[in-house]
């Protein structure tokens, strides 16, 4: 009987090993616009430490709702403040871990071979530049890039002229793909997104005062018990990681 118990214990240990190994991954929920820079940074951390990460990229609004629904994860990096406020109000983050991590800009993009030229400013002729096409944007009601873009167009007085010409996408990367593939002549995305896709070019940058400050907050989730999560956060805020984020066009705030 004792031999059978020992054999069963060995079998259970072997079966449990993959699950345990997976549980040691640091699970990160990150805004879609972070993909290239965060992939580089976490790869550098893995090379340095041997520790693993698993990253889910989506719109910040979708990630916040997933956190609210109880998805197992360790770290949330949002593309705006309100969605971290949303999960914080529900006591789903560790307040002391919260930090304003990165900054960004929003830009107007066109396809790489487009000849369109336009100067962004009060009353600029965006509608005329669209022609019969549509303006690709992330969801203007929920996704940070879409909200920033709409706010800027409203401030500049051109939103009423293009409101019925907007092609809304699930997240900012999908909005950029519409332009990269030639399905929309113009789009509004983050500068860092435009830098990551050779299929688009930047036409102009929206004035920073025309929209709320673009801030990417980062916080550990209240449910996280993975000790490696704090180590990852420390690395993401290190000088080595700073270079990787700045290379992609982000401003490192903290």
Structure notes:
The protein is 43% helix and 21% strand. Helix 2 (35-49) links the parallel strand 1 (26-31) and strand 2. It has 2 domains: 2-103 and 216-252, D-Maltodextrin-Binding Protein, domain 2, CATH 3.40.190; 106-210, 3-Layer(aba) Sandwich (D-Maltodextrin-Binding Protein, domain 2), CATH 3.40.190. With 254 residues, the protein is α/β, with parallel strands linked by helices. The strands form 2 sheets. Strands 2-1-3-10-4-11 form a 6-stranded mixed sheet. The chain contains 11 helices and 11 strands.
CATH homologous superfamily designation of the largest domain: Periplasmic binding protein-like II
Poorly predicted regions: 1-23
Radius of gyration: 21 Å
Strand content: 15-25%
The main β sheet shows up as: 6 strands, mixed
Structural class: alpha/beta
Order of helices and strands: HEHEHEHEEHEHHEHEHEEHHE
Please estimate the helix content.
40-55%
The tally of helices reads 11
Give the strand line-up of the largest sheet. 2-1-3-10-4-11
Provide the domain count: 2
Question: Which second-level CATH architecture of the largest domain applies?
Answer: 3-Layer(aba) Sandwich
Mean pLDDT: 90
| CATH hierarchy, class of the largest domain | Alpha Beta
- CATH fold group of the largest domain: D-Maltodextrin-Binding Protein, domain 2
End-to-end C-alpha gap: 59 Å
| Strand elements, count | 11
């Amino acid at each position: 009987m004792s031999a059978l118990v020992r054999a069963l214990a060995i079998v259970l240990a072997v079966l449990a090993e993959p699950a345990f190994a997976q549980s040691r991954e640091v699970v990160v929920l990150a805004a879609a616009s972070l993909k290239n820079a965060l992939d580089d940074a976490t790869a550098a951390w893995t090379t340095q430490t041997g520790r693993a990460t698993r990253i889910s990229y989506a719109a910040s609004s979708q990630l916040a709702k997933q956190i609210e629904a109880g998805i197992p994860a360790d770290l949330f990096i949002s593309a705006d403040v309100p969605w971290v406020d949303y999960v914080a109000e529900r006591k789903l983050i560790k307040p002391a871990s919260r930090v304003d991590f990165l900054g960004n800009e929003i830009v107007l993009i066109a396809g790489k071979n487009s000849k369109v030229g336009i100067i962004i400013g009060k009353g600029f002729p965006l509608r005329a530049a669209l022609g019969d096409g549509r303006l690709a944007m992330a969801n203007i009601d929920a996704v940070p890039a879409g909200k920033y873009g709409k706010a800027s167009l409203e401030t500049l007085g051109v939103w009423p002229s293009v409101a019925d010409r907007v092609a809304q996408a699930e997240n900012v990367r999908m909005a950029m793909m519409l332009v990269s593939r030639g399905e929309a002549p113009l789009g509004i995305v983050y500068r860092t997104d435009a830098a990551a896709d050779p299929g688009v070019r930047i036409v102009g940058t929206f004035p920073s005062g025309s929209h709320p400050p673009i801030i990417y907050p980062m916080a550990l989730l209240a449910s996280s018990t993975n000790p490696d999560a704090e180590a990852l956060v420390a690395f993401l805020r290190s000088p080595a990681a700073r270079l990787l984020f700045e290379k992609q066009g982000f401003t490192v705030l903290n």
